[in-house]
Design brief:
A 4-stranded antiparallel β-sheet has the order 5-6-7-8, with helices on one face. A two-stranded antiparallel ribbon has the order 1-4. The chain is globular. The chain has 6 helices and 8 strands; from the N terminus they run βββαβαααββββαα. 26% of the residues lie in helices and 19% in strands. The longest helix has 20 residues, at 157-176.
C-alpha cells in the first residue's frame, strides 16, 4: 500500500474467541465467558500514526455503522450497532453516554446448552437456561475481575435480579425480528468439517 501511495482504513475483527481449558472446556460453543466473547477488534484510520487501546466493551455490530460514518454516510434503517468514531478519536474518556450505558447482549444455543449474557456498565451477567433446570446465573465485575473468576451473584442478589430482568427483556426484543433458519441437507464431508469446528455434534 505504501509503494502504491495509498493509506487505507484497515479493520480486523473476529467472529468469536476460543476456550483453551480455562474452565475445563475447549472450543467456543459451551459458555459465554470472556475467552469466547472477547475478540480482536482493530481499526487503523488513514493517516493514523499512534495507537490507542479502548477498554470500553463494544460489539461486532458496531463495525458497520463505524465504517459508514468514516466514509461520510449515515446508517440507514435496519443497521444495528453504534458508531465507534468517538472512541477512535478520544478513547473511552470521550465516549458519549449512549456508548457507555448501553446493554450488550450475547446469546448461545448449541449442544442443547442455551445461554445468554448481558453487559451493562462494569457488570456482566451470564444465565444458563437448560430445559428442565432452574436458570443458573453468574455475575462478574469485568473491571476488577477481567478473567471472570469471582461469581458475585450470591452476594449481589438485587443487582443480579435487575440485570436478569434486563437480559430477559433484551432476549425477547432480539427474538421478535428473528427469521427461522431454512432446513438444508448436508453431505457427510460438510458434516465432518462442521463437527471438527464445533458447530454440530
Amino acid at each position: 500500500m505504501d509503494r502504491r501511495g495509498r493509506d487505507p482504513l484497515v479493520a480486523v475483527i473476529a467472529d468469536h474467541g476460543e476456550a483453551f481449558e480455562e474452565r475445563g472446556v475447549f472450543g467456543h460453543a459451551w459458555d459465554l465467558h470472556r475467552e469466547v466473547l472477547d475478540i480482536p477488534f482493530l481499526i487503523h484510520l488513514p493517516g493514523q500514526t499512534e495507537g490507542r487501546r479502548v477498554g470500553l466493551p463494544v460489539q461486532q455490530a458496531d463495525l458497520l455503522p463505524t465504517l459508514i460514518e468514516i466514509a461520510g454516510g449515515e446508517p440507514g434503517p435496519g443497521i444495528e450497532g453504534d458508531s465507534l468514531v468517538p472512541l477512535l478519536h478520544a478513547g473511552a474518556a470521550g465516549a458519549p453516554q449512549v456508548l457507555a450505558d448501553r446493554l450488550l447482549l450475547s446469546t448461545m444455543d448449541t449442544f442443547r446448552r442455551p445461554a445468554a449474557s448481558l453487559i451493562r456498565g462494569r457488570y456482566k451477567l451470564i444465565e444458563l437456561r437448560r430445559p428442565g433446570h432452574a436458570p443458573a446465573r453468574q455475575l462478574f465485575d469485568w473491571v476488577d475481575d477481567p478473567e471472570e473468576r469471582q461469581n458475585l451473584a450470591a452476594e449481589r442478589p438485587i443487582l443480579t435480579g435487575r440485570l436478569t430482568r434486563l437480559l430477559r427483556e433484551q432476549v425477547e426484543v432480539s427474538g421478535r425480528g428473528a427469521v427461522a433458519a431454512p432446513e438444508v441437507e448436508l453431505d457427510e464431508e460438510t458434516r465432518r468439517r462442521l463437527r471438527a469446528l464445533g458447530y454440530i455434534e
